[in-house]
Amino acid sequence: MVREGETVPVPGTSQDYYLENLQFDVELYDEDDERFQGAMQAAPGAEHIETFRTHSILYKPTDESTVGAGRELEAISEQDIEVNRPLYFDNYSVYQLDYKLNELSAMSFDVEDRETGEPAGSFTVDLNNPEDYYTLDNGEEVYIYDYFANFIINDAGEPTTENNVPDNPAFIFEMTNEDGEEELTFIRIQRNFEIRDDEDDPHQYAFTFAGIDTNHVTGLKVRKDLTLPFLIAGGSIFLLGLLQGSYWPHRRIWLQRENDGEILIAAHTNKNWESIKKRNS
Fold first, then answer.
1. How far apart are CA 25 and CA 18, in angstroms?
2. Which candidate, 37, 71, 74, 45, places its Cα nearest to that of 59?
3. pLDDT tens for residues 97-154?
4. Is the pLDDT at 45 greater than 70, yes or no?
5. Could you tell me the pTM of the whole model?
6. For FRET with 29, which of 64, 145, 159, 222 sits at 20 to 30 Å CA-CA?
7. What whole-number distance in Å separates Cα of residue 262 and Cα of residue 251?
């Protein structure tokens, strides 16, 4: 799964190749086209997808780059990967297999100082690569105490994440108030509450949800096929044998010398018996 704007190493290539998802597109059938009216009326409200594609760039590290040190990449090809139109390179093929539209990519928050009634600032969290600290406009810092990309409550009643896909992100933010006390706030979609011992003592800093950003994710399948040369060799041998069996007669001739000096001749052929009879005569 490769998000738009993301460059990842191609699995199985030992980081010899990288692939970037520049943009992902989905094309739908024209609802006004009379040719498709029957299918669309049979499934009203459904998306009738014609094709989906990934506009990709294939990279190869330069000779000077070092593994794990921010490798310098060189573009070697740019191609749209579509269903039944894979990207081929160096015995590898990359197929368009799946996709996910409008995955959460970033969440923005506003922070207000209740003591002054003024906004303390805003910050945006990259859900796929969050930072530890975010500095607000008033100079204060927000620390991500804990982050759950796909928030669930486990069997022990503890908050955890099901996987690293940001389908249901949740945060525990920490800030230090003017008294030097740490304030924890839990935020997730449609939930926002302060973690405190005294219900009558609210936090100095209040968090509010400000917005989200989304992007598309493409699902690609990588295959490496080394059987093609063997298939070509086996097919060539098969065709050669078929040619010999179909068009070339197989003839066998036996000679046996008798005691009286006579020579006996026997012959066999898989076709054209008349020609071998004439030769015997």
1. 20
2. 74
3. 999 999 999 999 999 999 888 999 999 999 999 999 999 999 999 999 999 999 999 9
4. no
5. 0.70
6. 222
7. 23
Is the separation of the CB atoms in 83 and 49 below 8 Å? Answer: no
Q: For residues 48 and 26, give the distance between their C-alpha atoms in angstroms, rounded to a whole number.
A: 10
Closest CA to 223 of 21, 11, 70, 58: 11
pLDDT band at 162 (very low <50, low <70, confident <90, very high): very high
Do residues 92 and 76 make contact, with C-beta atoms less than 8 angstroms apart?
Answer: no
Q: How many other CB atoms are found less than 10 A from the CB of residue 154?
A: 10
Pairwise CA distance, residues 77 & 222, whole Å:
16
Task: Using alpha carbons, select from 168, 220, 165 the residue that is nearest to residue 55.
Answer: 220
Asked whether 105 and 217 are in contact (CB, 8 A), the reply is no
Q: Mind listing the pLDDT tens digit for each residue in 170-203?
A: 999 999 988 888 999 999 988 888 888 777 788 9
- Measured from the Cβ of residue 219, the count of other Cβ atoms closer than 10 Å reads 15
Greater confidence (42 vs 160) lies with 160
